[in-house]
């Protein structure tokens, strides 16, 4: 077991991000058994869940003439447009059926504001609207975080970099993550995470 000041953060292990889903990450389901095994080593396990209202502003279908993976400018910066995914209450928003969700002390839903996307478990993409996760961790005396899940180059990376910026000791287990790798986004994310002080581990 890890020490009580360490938590495992499992990012967005949902049906829509796994093969067959609306925004599938290649081999995204391969990591489920390893994540389940790792959960047993932690006193505190937190799951995040993308939870978008229908017609979310990050969906390509909400923008005339735009296709998935195009970009638009939002008040908070450049936004990649995605296929409709993880719609609140929908089948695709559910966790992978083999994920051991009973180990979760907390399930954090994000991306619920229709006007702002939310990759990070700590902040919406405006980098100022908080999710409340930091306060939860501080109240429990947790200072070290291990990140796994989907996708390495978006929600995992943003979460880990925000954790480091907030003063947590952050580690990403690359062996228990999978990436979208959009135009070199995986290499860029790894570089950015290292530059932010995130520890990169292969297990």
UniProtKB/TrEMBL annotation:
InterPro entries: Isochorismatase-like_dom (IPR000868), Isochorismatase-like_sf (IPR036380), Isochorismatase_Nicotinamidase (IPR052347). Keywords: Hydrolase, Metal-binding, Pyridine nucleotide biosynthesis. It comes from the Bacteria. Its EC number is 3.5.1.19. It is an enzyme of class 3 (hydrolase). GO terms for biological process: pyridine nucleotide biosynthetic process. GO terms for molecular function: metal ion binding; nicotinamidase activity. Residues 6-200 form the Isochorismatase-like domain. Coiled coil: none annotated. Pathway: Cofactor biosynthesis; nicotinate biosynthesis; nicotinate from nicotinamide: step 1/1. Belongs to the isochorismatase family. This is Nicotinamidase. It comes from Rhodalgimonas zhirmunskyi.
């Amino acid at each position: 077991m890890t020490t009580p000041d360490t938590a495992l953060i499992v990012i967005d292990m949902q049906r829509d991000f796994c093969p067959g889903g609306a925004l599938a990450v290649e081999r995204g389901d391969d990591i489920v058994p390893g994540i389940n095994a790792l959960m047993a080593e932690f006193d505190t396990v937190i799951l995040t869940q993308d939870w978008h209202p229908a017609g979310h502003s990050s969906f390509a279908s909400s923008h005339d003439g735009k296709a998935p993976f195009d970009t638009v400018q939002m008040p908070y910066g450049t936004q990649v447009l995605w296929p409709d995914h993880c719609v609140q209450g929908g089948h695709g928003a559910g966790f992978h059926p083999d994920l051991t969700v009973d180990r979760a002390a907390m399930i954090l839903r994000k991306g619920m504001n229709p006007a702002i996307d939310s990759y990070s478990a700590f902040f919406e993409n405006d980098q100022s609207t908080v999710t409340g996760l930091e306060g939860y961790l501080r109240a429990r005396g947790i200072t070290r975080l291990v990140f796994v899940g989907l996708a390495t180059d978006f929600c995992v990376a943003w979460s880990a970099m925000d954790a480091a910026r907030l003063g947590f000791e952050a580690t990403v287990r690359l062996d228990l993550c999978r990436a979208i790798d959009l135009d070199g986004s995986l290499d860029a994310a790894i570089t950015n995470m290292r530059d932010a002080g995130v520890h990169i581990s292969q297990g």
